[in-house]
Amino acid sequence: MENIVQNLQTVPLNHYILFSTLIFSIGVIGVLIRRNMIIMMMSIELMLNAVNLLLAAFSVHHGDSSGQVFVFFIMALAAAEVAVGLAIIIMVYRNTKSVDIDALNKLRW
Amino acid sequence: MSLFYVVALLSTFFALMTIFTKNPVHSVLYLVITFFTFTVHYILLNAQFLAVVNFIVYMGAIMVLFLFVLMLLNMNEDVEPMKSTLVKVMAVIAGCCLFVTVCGALHLFDTQTPLIEKDPSIGLVKNLGQVLFKEFLLPFELSSLLLLTAMVGAVLLAKKEPKRI
Fold first, then answer.
1. CATH topology of domain A2-97
2. What is the pLDDT of residues B90-125, one digit of tens each?
């Protein structure tokens, strides 16, 4: 335990922000370059995780546990979001026989 | 070299593999490894409750759901038509622009201070449970309602429609 805390104190808060931004950007790129709906949802999960890690880091930095409670609520929300999203994907697949996002281009205005 | 940088490198690598692998099943497996590295990050932050919840909810529940859907839709081969190269390059440039913008904004602040843990016991299950059930009792109960709604919605959406006559 003491070792972990010692280890932590050498990392600037800056690097946590940079790392979370990097993972978030990777998630954004994943949403933009893929056409498979399931992989797009996985990229969204990646973005949510990056934000969670940053919230936890700030919570530890400020010594306030509200941030970690908030991360817990985001995780519950992510579980609900994934369940509904995958149900929608299954319904779309049943109607169009593909998980290509372009199968839904009639939703465009 | 601090353990943080090693784990950060690993999670970045596996996140990249997640979005660039063609086979969806491999993509899900890389995402599982990415979430595992996030769990290690939480342990490094001494947020043990979040580490356990991340391990159970993300790696256990959500990833099994993804794998089940991939299995149901029978997509374990590379059938995905990829976007054109121009769109891909533009997407990567857009993502890099986002990264550079946030990094540029970061330089306006003085955040070089090392991460000092003021209260090392903040992320333990005991303390977090106290906060969760004293200050955040109503949102906690509401989140159970949210999960119930999501469950009913998912069952309703994924159910087969009855044949029309």
1. Helix Hairpins (1.10.287)
2. 999 999 999 999 888 887 776 667 666 667 777 788
